[in-house]
């Protein structure tokens, strides 16, 4: 079981013609060095989600796919840093915003449940500019295009 001091997940979702789709999601996993810099890309993924999937649903599914990867590969860490360009998703996960939309409650609950399965000491959420989330964004859009 690989153990890391700090891991970073970048996640994203895309829905063309939001909320009708087509939609896709993507994620990238990095190891973080002692200075807080991403230095070792460990894995990435993307998934086509089909139609009638909103952008927020796709965002949650991108994060959930990354968390499922950590669980499936039995990867553990001390600190898990989750970064994305969806302020609403991150603030909902932090408990700052309530989840009021019926169409995303299931996806929110899936992420919360997946977080319980990941072996980590703490989680930190950070909203980042879209320009810093280019790899996960590219994966999400590639999933739609392919």
From TrEMBL:
SUPFAM superfamilies: Ribonuclease H-like. InterPro entries: RNaseH-like_sf, RNaseH_domain, RNaseH_sf. Pfam families: RVT_3. Residues 3-145 form the RNase H type-1 domain. GO terms for molecular function: nucleic acid binding; RNA-DNA hybrid ribonuclease activity. PANTHER family: POLYNUCLEOTIDYL TRANSFERASE, RIBONUCLEASE H-LIKE SUPERFAMILY PROTEIN (PTHR46387), RIBONUCLEASE HI (PTHR46387:SF2). This is Ribonuclease H-like protein. It comes from Fragilariopsis cylindrus CCMP1102.
């Amino acid at each position: 079981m690989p153990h890391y001091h700090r891991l970073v997940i970048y996640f994203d979702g895309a829905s063309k013609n939001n909320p009708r789709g087509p939609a896709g999601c993507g994620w990238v996993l990095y190891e973080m060095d002692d200075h807080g810099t991403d230095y070792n890309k460990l894995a990435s993924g993307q998934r086509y989600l089909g139609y009638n999937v909103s952008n927020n649903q796709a965002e949650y599914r991108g994060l959930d796919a990354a968390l499922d990867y950590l669980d499936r590969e039995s990867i553990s860490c001390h600190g898990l840093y989750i970064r994305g360009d969806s302020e609403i998703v991150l603030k909902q996960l932090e408990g700052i915003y309530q989840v009021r939309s019926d169409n995303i409650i299931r996806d929110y609950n899936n992420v919360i449940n997946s977080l319980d399965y990941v072996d980590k000491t703490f989680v930190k959420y950070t909203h980042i500019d879209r320009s810093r989330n280019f790899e996960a964004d590219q994966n999400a859009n590639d999933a739609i295009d392919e």
